[in-house]
Fold each of these.
Amino acid sequence: MNNKTLIIAGLVIFLIIVLFPFWYMRGKAAPAPEPVLTPMAKAAQACVRSTEYMKSEHMQLLDVWRESVVRDGKRIYVNPQGKEFNMSLSNTCLDCHSNKAEFCDRCHDYASVRPYCWSCHIENPKEKT
Amino acid sequence: MNLRYTIPLIAVIVLFLIAFLGAQVPGLQYVFGVVIPYLALITFVLGFAYRVIGWSRSAVPFKIPTTAGQQKSLPWIKHSKFDCPANTWQVVVRMALEILTFRSLFRNTRMKLKEGARISYQLELFLWVGALAFHYAFLVVLIRHLRFFIEPVPFVVQLIENVDSFFRMEIIYPVFKFGLPGVFISGFVLLAAVSYLFLRRLFVHQVKYISIASDYFPLFLIFGIALSGIFMRYVTKVDVTAVKELTMGLVTFQPTIPAGVDAVFFVHIFFVSILLAYFPFSKLMHLGGVFLSPTRNMTTDTRVRRHINPWNYPVPVHTYDEYEDEFREKMVEAGLPVEKMPQPAPAEEPASDSEPEQEEQKE
């Protein structure tokens, strides 16, 4: 048995696996997607919280909202600026951001995140109800 | 304090500071985010190939499989196929079991004296469990990270992510919120396992005695990698889109440093780069070496097939027959016993020396 051939074959297979992303992508650019703001969102200028906060914490905020609404029955959210909001994904968030495909899904798909919001909430309450 | 682990610990802390402070400087972000990862990957690939090719050149002078079962023998003696493999397929099974389930570690026993002088051997499985947890968690973490290097993310990666985030824990307190983004259990298993493997070296005296700096350094480094990854995901909640833009730039050879990438990310990728560059020159090469362990990957057919040492070269031997042929007369003269008598028995034999030998000669 020729051990050397076997070992080199194994090494080649290993390196092919290690470098998989490089030859799989073959230099195809994959720039970060830009979430699209609807005219309504643009007009509102500010979200519930600052853009930076929403970028990193929106999932946590939504979870806190759900907890508050479902368990405690409290529906009013007061942001640090003192503005009041109705804690509702369908009626508050999706009111401005009615374009789920261009706003939510783009980044979620890019980052391979599959939020389970949509297993209960319908994507665009305005269109479907 | 013991220098064998303080020095690696200080080294990892220094590496952390280098990356953390370096990432604050805008110009250096390109170095930490692009230059060092590329250099590290090149070092890894070339170094790995160099080491394995070096191993492939070494000769195999002896057949040294270890056995843990009955060798193939008479038909009515049960052959232990995978502990004493007699052909290549049985070796393949044994290697697969070794590489995928770490059977050598499973056999770990601890000798204890019980009730005074009674020796007992107990299975000692914590190392095996820890090693399995560590390696498989690391594998899952590695596969999960493909989401940063492939676009669109393949189904297999998504499947593993779904399984990995099976346990959904959402902890909501005013001061402590945890659970979103979804918790990947593998990261925490990796962190726990690497901590266990470190504490084992610290608290089991025998293991501590044989542990050196190059044992501790990868443990600290992997601990740093896991911790920085967990920190990024659950605490600072780094901008994943920006991070993926950076990593996709690396993979597609169009490197960019997008704005808004956290310093913790640079620490993470710097640690990973150090690990990759360090890999080929360290004990971590057991990734390749385990396939070449001679006690595991050889057939135990030593009685059936002769193993020829490739180092063998023709040795000029001088057999006893040749020796006697050369020195027969002198041996006879000296009265030493010989196997063959000289053919022409010369008459000049002086009647002397020892009688019995002369009698033998006459025979």
Amino acid sequence: MNLEDLRKDIDGLDARILALLNERMEKAILTRRFKDALADPGREAAVIEKVRRQSRCLIDPEFSTGLYRSIIEQSKALQAKGLRTIGFQGEHGAYSEMAARSWGPDAAAIPCREFVDVFDAVESGLFDFGIVPVENTLGGLVGPVNSILVYTGLRIVAAVDMGISHCLLAVPGSDHREIRTVISHSQALAQCRRFLARNKLDPEPFYDTAGAARELSQTRAKGTAAIASRFAAELYDLEIIKEAIQDSENNRTRFFVLARDGAASQEGSKGSAVFSAEGDKAGALYGVLEIFARRGINLTRIESVPDKPGDYAIFIDFEGSRGDARVVEALAEAQRTARDFRLLGFYDEARV
Amino acid sequence: MKNLKLSASRPDGARTVIDVGGVKLGGDFVVIAGPCSVESEEQTLRTAEAVAAAGAKMLRGGAFKPRTSPYAFQGLGLKGLKILEKARRETGLPVVTEVVDTRDVSWVGEYADVLQIGARNMQNFSLLREAGRSGKPILLKRGMHSTLEEWLNCAEYILAEGNGQVFLCERGIRTFETYTRNTLDLSMVPAVKAESHLPVFVDPSHGTGILGMIEPMSLAAVAAGADGLEIEVHCDPSSALSDKDQQLTPAAFALLMDKLRRLRAFMGELG
């Protein structure tokens, strides 16, 4: 081990310390939901005391408690800002987080393990918003998300249609010609299948694109690269070997931003609804389509998702606002005739 | 010539035309121009813009340099490829760049539109095979000690991999003459046309190595019937990291392009 190796290790540790610090700040922002006053002297004293007790080896208690006092000050400053929070599935650097940032650059994007965790946390009031991918031009419907959308009580308050550009990322300074294995989410790997084949790279599925980038930045595994966003490369300090490696240029994902009913504006030029089709499916579908067609309301999406065995939930997106009389009439009529017809929300859609 | 199963002239006289992003090699007269080496983003972009404005249809630039001395500038590698990709994005010119190592072939193919096999690697058979398998158009330069038959056999290696997109470039050979860097063998232009259906280009920069000879030999190549030229141009030749003495300034290149246009018009009248 030489100076260069040691410094590389230190750089890696710094990246992890900062990532942990960021996670601590996220938790701190969320505690604001559960307490009335910003300052909680009892809790602060307990934290400092715990830090003092846990300081060992080279960590001088004076140093660590001083450090923590400044961390607590920064936490309170962040809490005082009253940042909006938006949950996304995946790790920091995920495409969902990019979409969240394009929708609300000043909101705090908070990672969740599963899609259902995003919905639950918004429903419980822990997060103000959630963002989820609903469909991709290459991969089709994001099944797990649409299955939850069928029953959710949340409202769609915005949509983001985002171009997906996958990048091949490697540890800085490594020789790209020695890459043999590429880790990423199976969908990203599938979207770059021809690129991987051309360069004789073995795909290895990982649960998340950004997670793969983080894993690579920490393990620095030899001969390994990750597929993730340019944003993940910056976040995890990886070198972009090649941008836009997806086989098809037309790779876009559509995201919905969700909030509790009444928590955000329902202004917008687009609407979404869901209803159930069982038994006479053709009749159920035709009945609803006819209601919209008769009033000249354009439908921009019709998708069916398997629901209970033999049943389908049908999603429709339409053009029109809630102030539009034709839309109001159509929705009222659909509610009377279609089974379980529910409006999911009115919103504006941004293309980025 | 024996054993030229795929490169020999076809009975019906049909000639290969390679479409590279709308540029028709072997169809239109094409000038490929750019710096010997990619040295920096600024140098490459400035040169690329200048050659595009003067009428070049493709950009050249070396990211991997086969240098005589191991201590000479070896090229920027991957960083150079990224710069070339940016130059293509900004000028719209397809990019030709040399590949010197089989391990680089697929990666260079991700960035460049045409892979160049240089004179020193003309008979590097594993490199030829790998380049053939890449499916990319290949610019095969003539080895400095090679006969026409050897040259066409090397093209055959690429064609035999199922890659029909090969074009040739005469760049001078070693003779007892030392006045010029190489002896530019323009007789190869009609010779290739007689023996093969592949397009043939001429590189007067390496062919002579003398600045003042680039223009007359370019004009002579056109008169001989070359399908195109590959010319080194640098936005500031005096500061170049390689081939300082044979890179044209953008102004000299623009004057040459004008003369080429007039000569080609006259050649058209000759029929």
Amino acid sequence: MNILTLIVFLPTLGALLCLFVPKSQVRAVALAASFLTFIVSLSLFGTFFGGGPEGDPDVFGADYGTLHHITRTPWIVGNSFTIEYYLGIDGLGFPLLILTTLIGFLSCWASWNFDSWKINKGVRAYFILFLLLETGMLGVFVALDFFLFYIFWEVMLLPMYFLIGVWGGPRREYAAIKFFLFTLAGSVLMLVAIVAMYFYSDAAIAAEAARLGTEGIASGYRGDGTVISNGTFDLIELAMNPTIQAYFGAKTTLFLGIRFAPLMFIALFIGFAIKLPSVPFHTWLPDAHVEAPTPISMILAGVLLKMGGYGFLRVCYPIFPAGAEVWAYTLAMVGVVSIIYGALCAMAQTDFKKLVAYSSISHMGYVLLGIAVMTTAGIQGAMFQMLAHGISSPMCFFLVGVIYDRAHHREINRFGGLWLTMPRYGTLATIGFFASLGLPALCGFIGEVWVLLGTFDAGTKFAWAYPTAIVAAFGVVLTAGYILWLIRRVYLGKEREEYKGYTDATGRETMILIPMAILCIAMGILPAQTVFNFTNGTLDNILTHVSQTIAMLM
Amino acid sequence: MNLLMQANLWANIPVGEHLAFFSPMITLVCTMLAIVACPIVLGRGSRTTAGIALLGIIATFILALRVLHATTTNGVSGLSTDPGAGLFIVDGLSAFFQVLLIIFLAGVTWLWWLGSSANERNAPEFFILLFGSALGMSMMVSSANLLMIVVAMETASLPSYAIVGFDKRDRLGAEASLKYMVFGAICAAIMLYGASLLYGLTGSLSVADIARFTVANLATGEHHLLLALGLLCFLVGIAFKVSAVPFHFWCPDAFQGAKIEVTTWLSVASKAAGLVLLLRLTMIFCSVVGSPADMSLIQPLAWTIAILAAVTCTVGNFSAYKQKSVKRMLAYSSIAHAGYMLMAVAVFAHPAVEGHQAGMVALLVYIVIYLFMNLGAFGVTAMIVWDTGNDDIKSFSGLMRRAPFLAVPMIICLVSLVGLPPLAGFIGKWWILLALGSLDSTLGWFLVIVAVLNTLISLYYYMRVVVQMTLRDEGDPAVQSPFGGLALVNICALMLLILFFRAHPLKTTTDRFARTLNVASLTTPSPDNAVASRFIEAD
């Protein structure tokens, strides 16, 4: 059995098992399933070790589209097209897959105290939905058929809706439906793009085949002599086939009278930007985060937001480089506005969780900026930032959850001196929040600096890059501002009477926090060994492909 | 070309071999007669009547399957040489629809048995009306002649009016029935007026002749006003059956007032029959167009249906928002779904034969999936109504606790109605979107965008019911529901999952029927029609 299939559907198997075991065993089964998924996913390191700068060149290949552990089987066969069950992994999906299995496991563990939650009915349903959600998330990162990608993308919605809606805070219904509506709005745009991309690629291939007088044309990336004669949903084929690329990017290719590439790019972009989320599509996030139970917040911040960034890098940029060029300025501006706006909003919050939620918006702004400028450092920094945020923000949310479990409120101004009351918790919290702040030697730093450097690098091609970089750099100051202020108000100062008897972080809580703390430090000190060696090969290939295609279309 | 049967109904007296093609309809009539006759001997009990009905359904089902088999495997395509000229067509499309109709009839009978049989004193009358409308519907999909269409539609409509107000003591039902009938009568009158205009213009009742006249008229650019009026008026009748906006006003009232098994019946069968009829008519229009390039001639017709579809879909979805009665909400939802299905019909002006086929297949697949979605959703609603006595959205609150085996299938059916994966409703939409995309025209993309936006709009009101079932709980007692009902709705939900993961078999099956339709009604050689050869080659 293909290892990716195994990883994706292990949680589903766990969910099925959860249906039959006694109620008291459900959480153990779920935890075992998510842990097993994590362990199995670690075996993928075997493939990607040695892919560093001086390592084996075959790991990432010379071109975008070098994949590992491929499995492809026809699933739905139409008269002229095939929708495939097509999974594969490269340097883009791999780190995010590991992140997902890790955060999935940790947040499942964070749900261990389900019985002591305010709403503690339906333990079985909770863990089943949780595991189904994990399957959806894992599927998104390995699906390479656009249709399949879309299915996994949508499969996540319903479990997430219920997880927020049933087990969330007081305004859970509102938050859940808002999340659902926003995400679905993005996905219907994606659906239009899927249909359009299929028929436009079909037209491109038909025209080229007719010109050559052949049945079809050679695949753009598969070296096995595959001939494609119809439109395709293959995300890599759509990107790497020169015929399709030339047709998609041409100024004469119109969709309802508008140039195809920029239009499709922006439709897909909005779909992914809602997930990211970037201003102005961010309003669902604070609501969803605040109302969601702690483990679900961890999943939301740690994994779901990354799907937006992943979507840009997997779908938008490689397939529509022409659109990327047209929209670069707008995207960079949206990114910068997200950084500044998110940080300012975070500064104004008095709700602990809302502050972390807005900080996510700010941090994901760096991702968008780094991708938008299309430079090596920018795109690497964006990827790093996604992973760094994927570790630090679940950690922050869990830290909030720990104190919420004890104090039953999240008012920042009512806290104080917690470090004295709970020294172990205070220490770990400092690591988490400093990582989020972007302190050098912690994970948040590398991503932000890389993105800023990348933006400066872009100065040679975009006149607006320097001012943008300067404004974005100001975001770092704001971040430092709200996080330091937060730490002062919550953890420092005199010990307060009302929190005196609080137990320090329990063994379970500490064990959940420590892996994330270690990763925060490790990624800050050894960015190459922990992240860059696994991602840069593919990212460079994507960037080369994008700039070559733009040059070709000029 | 292997048309084995080329007999004209009126020229040759039909022999047994030909009559075999009508056997399902004849069986339906015989069942009705039996239901009338048997009470004399066996009494009027529900059990007796249901037993006879069941026998009739089984017999009809077997015969319908035989006809289906004959039409698809042997290439036998019915009794008519020219699909427009004859009064009756039996081909893959009509046979397929009949099979579906009978399956659905069985489902509705099952619902009736569970819910109403115990205190129903007029069971024979109920079944005569039910089978009568089924007969009319299966005639509708077999006709391509104005006279026959009108007769078939009235055969389907008149019993429907009566059955909506079947319970004489129910004021709401009586009111609904009256509204339905008045509205139906007006639409039928408009339709007849249109038919008379068309007959006056063309001198023929055959849709093929009318189509030829229309295409010629469009080709010369005359734009005959009377012709347009005639066609539009005729369309009104079909739009009424489909409950397309603005001819949908009867729908919510009739659905709310009628007994729930009747509502279920009308929501799927009556609409599907109207849509298949419309599909057949549009196919005839395609088949008389000269060449692929000339397909643009019938674009105005395609646009008419497209706009009807877009408006129906949007109005249906928006109207469903504020409904408190779940039956009424589902009525509006069924209007919206009629809109989606009309979109599949709007693909007919596709220049390539694969294009029509994609539209046809999309429609047929959607009808099959829609059948399960609606049967499931109405089935659950029915059991709530039987238990709590009303169908207010409030009576669904806490259903997840009160009856998980009702709540889970309901969630599956509703999410499938929204059209989200991994459920069959998404596959249904997907084929429609693909068929529309294959047009690669303004019309196609316009409808694609309308369809996906409507998916978004519809999410909210379907989720309202889900919210009631899962997130709210007012401590109502557990719901008692018959085991048979639970089985029915859970099977429906299971089918929705299966039809998603194994989407392919349904598609290939419908593909085969769609292809026989192409053989049957599009490839018919006729002297004044040069198109036909194109379709033969394409096949």
Amino acid sequence: MSETAEAPGPVTIVETPIHLDYKFTPGVAQSRFLRALERGEITGQRCPKCQKVYVPPRGACSMCGVATDEEVKLSGKGTITTFCVTQIPSPGLVPPYVTAWIRLDGSDITSMFLIQECDPAEVRLGMRVEAVWVEESELVPDLGNIKYFRPIDEPDAEYETYKDYV
Amino acid sequence: MKSFLRDVAIVASATFETPSEPSRNEVEMLLPVIHDALGQVGLSQGEIGFTVSGSSDYLQGYTFAFVGALDAVGAWPPIRESHLEMDGAFALAEAVAYLQEGHVDTALVYAFARPSRGDLDRTLSVQLDPYTVAPLWPDARGLAGLQAQAMRDSGRYGDVPDVTPTYVGDGVTAVILATGDRARELTKTPVWIRGIDHRIEAQMLGLRDLGSSASTKLAGEGAGATNIDEAYLHVLYPHQELLVKDALGLDRQPVNTAAGPMMVGGLERLATAAKSIAGTGKRAVATATSGACMQQNLVAVLEGAAA
């Protein structure tokens, strides 16, 4: 046995739990968006300068740096511009499942949603899809009102119409 | 810094403060204030050479929250931009340094915060050493109490007031800077920054002499804060006014103090000083403080060219 006590090793982990509470303030523009979702509608806002329509609206055009006021109601239909088939499980999702960037008709920005009610092998760029909502009695001011998007019986969108969003 | 390769002036500013902003988010608060400041000198965002901001993601409660604030600026085509997790006054110091390089001649500096949505005194605890101090959760007001008591114990200040926070809840401030002739083109009453310096003290509170502000003193010397007509001091608690006046040797000058919103108040002091002395030929000192017990301090010397 060694006569000297072994020096303790370096401390490699220190647990310092930090917990802070915040109230989130979505802002005027996003409040309107959330209230629309509560009615089962998707709305965006148009930039007065470049005319781009933002969904969700954030109250400003991030390219022009000006306030966006004009409210635009969207149909809830859109075009898949990019997608990914996931083969590993995620909470509440059974693989394989599809996540897609969708350019909603009438908007100039893509949003991420799940694609369901179709074989993942059939999902493609340009595919036309529509929002599937929760029951009317379950509507709340939350994007979770849209459960997922599903294909609709329309011809694929021309590449030219979404090439800037791929 | 008190000698400049290029003279820099404050040519416009705008500010908004409220105890609590219940409905608008940070971008919606910033937009009208930035547009107000730009409009005062007829500039558009596209004409701004450098954009820099000060804020704290901890006050908003999510990481990289400051990036979202760029929506209020319009970063397209891509702009030259920087951000500090500090009061906007320190962002202004970065802009002054940037303007020295000579590539651009205008800068937009802004600061924003809406701490009313959380517990500010507790949130500020996360500024502390994360292993040995922050887990004890000393709140900002308690630490200010240690500072006030250290001042009393020093016997150098007479009556030291109680620790009552004076910071306002939420707000934003925007300042436009311009160099030399560009500043004179933009306004008849540029307020020249004749000196600016900032210093930081050790993070370990036990290492510091809380009964004085060594960083304010050195920053004051670095900025050349002498022959001052008026003072605009950023203090978060009444006792800190005594510390700053002592460090800068202010005894006869009119002193105007305010805390403003956290992360905004320092830049607001510089903006208010500039508005007050514009066109008067007067020389003012403005200060900004950040960190626990005034860990970081900035001193700026401003001169309002006579109209």
